[in-house]
Amino acid sequence: MRYRSFIYFVMPVFMLAGSGCEKYINYVNSPVYEQKLVITSFISPSDTVSQILVSSNQPLYTFSEKPEERGDITGTISDGTNEVQLDTMSTGLFFSRDKMPVSPGKTYTLKISSSKGLYAEASATVPRQREMLIKVDTVTSARDIYNYMPYNELMITIEFTDHPGEKNFYTVIGKFSGYKSDPENNYSSPRYWLEYMNDLKANPDNRIRMDSWITPVESNYDSAFLRVYILNTEESFYLYHTSLNEYEQSDNPFSEAKPVFSNIHGGLGIFASYVVDSLVLRVK
Fold first, then answer.
1. Burial 187-197 (b: 16+ CB within 10 A, else e)
2. CA–CA gap between residue 259 and residue 267 (Å, rounded)
């Protein structure tokens, strides 16, 4: 009986103590929404057509199900000497190589206006074109899981030249394709991977080395190819993609929100450039 009486005495104490944790706050005003153009564009001398995706940012606190429209848009691009009008497409704007060639070392300025009175501009300087002397080695090894699930793993070592005296940023993109020519089962099996890096990873011999792998890899392909693309990019290209990865793939739910990098004046998004070198290796 004493034990039960004690329980009945303690429970109201905890209930009263818990009620002290409740706090009521008045409604606060949400941040003022300022509509801006959102631009995404990556230009390169290797492209015959360069696209500029244009949309509008959206209010964070709203009950409207209709997205904010960007309005009708027009724009120009200039290389410092010539300026041309951009062509229109459903998702934004574009220009072709014969209208405005993209050349290594040049700076391009993008200006976009909207019928809703919105305006944004940005500049991008194309990196110099360099011979990267790409080298790729592969090793296939047999593995298994708990001795009853055997599979093949393709280990890949990539090496390329970093030119000293320059601050460089790279994106490495790989694609593995295996082909079977069986008339009843003719298909390819593409696998992709990519990595963003800077030249701090260069060795004293000014070579950058990285390891990657593809698993599982079938052994009964009739032929297989490995394509490696090395993009020498602007710093803004590197900062945008790494900040985007951190924003989307953060493993810490208590970390502070980190905004995605933007270099658009008067708007949001990214306008950056790159040059590319590549190598195709027949694995089988």
1. eeeeeeeeebb
2. 14
Distance (Å, whole) CA 30 – CA 172: 42
Sequence-distant (≥ 6) Cβ neighbours of residue 82 within 8 angstroms? 100
Side-chain half-sphere CA neighbours of 15 within 13 A: 6
Helix ranges restricted to H, 79-215: none
What are residue 282's phi and psi, to 5 degrees?
-85, 115
SS3 content of the chain, % helix, strand, coil (to 5): 15, 50, 40
Q: What is the DSSP letter of 265?
A: B
Residues 97, 75: Cα–Cα separation, whole Å: 16
Confidence of residue 22 (pLDDT cuts 50, 70, 90): low
Q: For residues 153 and 69, give the distance between their C-alpha atoms in angstroms, rounded to a whole number.
A: 48
Q: What are phi and psi of 13, to 5 degrees?
A: -65, -45
Q: Which residues contact 189 (CB under 8 A, 6 or more apart)?
A: 177, 178, 218, 221
Residue with more model confidence, 211 or 60: 211
Domain ranges of the chain: 37-125, 135-235+276-282
Backbone angles phi, psi at 269, to 5 degrees: 120, -155
Query: Tokens 């032929």 appear where?
Result: 223
Please tell me the pTM assigned to this model: 0.81
Could you check whether 37-125 and 135-235+276-282 share the same CATH topology? yes
Give the pLDDT band of residue 189 (cuts 50, 70, 90).
Answer: low
Neighbours of 245 (CB within 10 A): 12
Residue 193 has what pLDDT?
Answer: 72
pLDDT score for 6: 46
Question: Would you identify the CATH topology of the domain 135-235+276-282?
Answer: Immunoglobulin-like (2.60.40)
What is the CATH code for 37-125?
A: 2.60.40
